[in-house]
Specification:
The protein is mainly β and about 100 residues long. About 5% of the residues lie in helices and about 60% in strands. The chain is built from one helix and seven strands; from the N terminus they run βββββαββ. The strands form two sheets. It has a four-stranded antiparallel sheet, with no helix packed on it. A three-stranded antiparallel sheet has the order 1-4-3, with no helix packed on it. Strand 6 and strand 7 form a beta hairpin.
Length: about 100
């Protein structure tokens, strides 16, 4: 069975490191309340989180504001995978996952 889980991103100045199953599928990032979250779908067994056979890894997410510089080495080497743009009036944030 697959289940959707949400994970809070709480640092716009630094990378957000989140423990999650290696093969979790990132669905989107959005604002809920006053915080930015990502939603990911992954295997579970009877609702247990995570599936006992899944390898848990540290996945790295970045939040950049409109007009912010993105490090050349991350973007040029396809290390950043775009997830979503979220609006927290008056700010607009862009969420990426850093791929190793």
């Amino acid at each position: 069975m697959r289940t959707i889980h949400k994970y809070k991103l709480d640092d716009v100045a630094h990378a957000n490191i989140i423990d999650m199953p290696e093969y979790a599928e990132i669905l989107t990032a959005q604002v809920q309340g006053n915080d930015i979250y990502i939603w990911a779908m992954h295997d579970t067994v009877d609702g247990d989180f995570p599936h006992p056979e899944d390898k848990i890894v540290k996945r790295k997410f970045h939040i950049y504001g409109t007009g912010w510089e993105i490090p050349d080495e991350s973007y040029a080497h396809n290390r950043l995978q775009y997830i979503a743009t979220v609006q927290m009036s008056p700010l607009v944030w862009h969420v990426f996952e850093e791929i190793e």
